[in-house]
Description:
Radius of gyration of chain B: 13 Å
Distance between the termini of chain B: 41 Å
Structural class of chain B: mainly beta
Distance between the termini of chain A: 36 Å
Oligomer: heterodimer
Helix content of chain B: under 10%
Strand content of chain A: over 45%
Number of helices of chain B: 0
Structural class of chain A: mainly beta
Helix content of chain A: under 10%
Order of helices and strands of chain B: EEEEEEEEEEEE
Order of helices and strands of chain A: EEEEEEEEEEE
Largest sheet of chain B: 6 strands, mixed
Shape of chain A: globular
Number of strands of chain A: 11
Largest sheet of chain A: 7 strands, mixed
Amino acid sequence: xxxxxxxxxxxxxxxxxxxxxxxxxxxxxxxxxxxxxxxxxxxxxxxxxxxxxxxxxxxxxxxxxxxxxxxxxxxxxxxxxxxxxxxxxxxxxxxxxxxxxxxxxxxxxxxxxxxx
Amino acid sequence: xxxxxxxxxxxxxxxxxxxxxxxxxxxxxxxxxxxxxxxxxxxxxxxxxxxxxxxxxxxxxxxxxxxxxxxxxxxxxxxxxxxxxxxxxxxxxxxxxxxxxxxxxxxxxxxx
Lengths: 116, 112
């Protein structure tokens, strides 16, 4: 398997622009997580889905952030409008069903976002 | 609520030195415990895990033992290499959700 795939790997945009980050989880995994990592705040869980349904979005910083998972193989994280303080590395992770007995999350390579 | 505390870094060692990175947790129930490693410019990847008390996880020369009596899961390696330089995260699973609770990470720098 190719692992969790994220795109783009790098994004540079100007304040006020819309940013869309994309994630393809590992085939067969039914939970998907979006994280944000910064030097100041470390690793933060933004939202997670189970069977394509958002379960916990308490980490989403504000209404400018939204996430969708229209099917089992694709998710997006959108920031509109973007602000310089959104600059961070955004990770997507997935894990197999509980019935597999495995709790390990598998991380993608991340999208490095810079908002000017 | 459940939480993970790990030692602050950076930890700087010479090659072949002994490594310990402390991790303690607070949890209800009997969660699984994990160590993840993040190499520069990459995502986190699982290093090792333990699913119940007294289990020892091991991988690539690293070890950690699930100690219920001290609520700890310290990471150890007998002889570190320059290639072990990375950030190490301790994490706690949950009986009731799919979330992992991560510690703040400890940066390890190994000098030749």
